[in-house]
Write a structure and sequence with these properties.
Elements: E1 31-34, E2 37-43, H1 47-54, E3 68-72, H2 74-79, E4 81-82, H3 89-98, H4 100-103, E5 133-138, E6 141-146, E7 149-154, E8 157-164, E9 167-168, H5 171-191, H6 194-208
Antiparallel strand pairs: 1-2, 3-5, 4-7, 5-8, 6-7, 8-9
Helix pairs in contact: 5-6
């Protein structure tokens, strides 16, 4: 068995049964296995439907409780829509401190040699590393159909924390990430007309209240 990387944070108890890849990273439940190897870029077959219907944690695969943790980018915190189901708070905290993509703001998504059958998740994605992630704790979400797949409307937050490079992010860091991604989000809203733009601006104002104090 491959040993865990020494620099990883403490592994949550629920994740202790997860397999470990050749680099020493635990393999989340949602990850697809291809030819006996995990591909962290690809969701397991029917993973979203199984997680939602069976109320499974996206990371450890075990049963969820009342409190649901969504790990989302700043644009998702504005429109409150995501393509990934929730996790346990402990699993989500591990992810924001261990995932290389979340730890390295300049890291780009690897699209080399993706399988021919690979499909992007539903919805329109801002294809960038936001550099900052939001851990959104709520008790509710609602799936809806979009572009031949499903997306999730996330409920009102009970608490919100912002992360970058494995630590809490500052207000300035979160605001910089929002400023970087917002133009594309506004452009999409403009395609749907003035009402969509007005709704987006209301959502931006609401999201500002969720940013760190300092």
């Amino acid at each position: 068995m491959t040993a865990l990387r020494k620099e990883l944070p403490r592994l949550p108890d629920r994740m202790r049964g997860r397999p470990v890849d050749h680099r020493g990273f635990p393999v989340p439940w949602f990850v697809a296995w291809l030819d006996g190897e995990p591909d962290f870029r690809i969701i397991r077959p029917n993973g979203l439907a199984i997680a939602v219907k069976q109320q499974r944690c996206w990371i450890c695969g075990q049963q969820l409780g009342r409190h649901l943790a969504f790990v989302i980018g700043p644009m998702c915190a504005i429109n409150r829509i995501t393509s990934e189901p929730p996790s346990h708070r402990e699993c989500a905290e591990f992810a924001v401190q261990a995932c290389p993509f979340m730890l390295r703001p300049r890291m780009k998504r690897n699209t080399v040699d993706l399988p021919e059958h690979y499909r992007n998740p539903a919805g329109i994605h801002v294809d960038r590393n936001p550099g900052v992630m939001c851990m959104w704790i709520t008790k509710s979400f609602k799936p809806f159909k979009a572009n031949g797949g499903y997306l999730l409307n996330i409920g009102e937050p009970e608490s919100v924390s912002w992360w970058t490079e494995g630590r809490y992010a500052t207000r300035a860091e979160v605001q910089a990430s929002i400023d970087g991604g917002f133009p594309q989000l506004r452009e999409l809203a403009e395609q749907d007309g003035p009402e969509a733009v007005a709704d987006l601006m209301r959502r931006v104002e609401t999201a500002q209240a969720l940013l760190p104090k300092g």
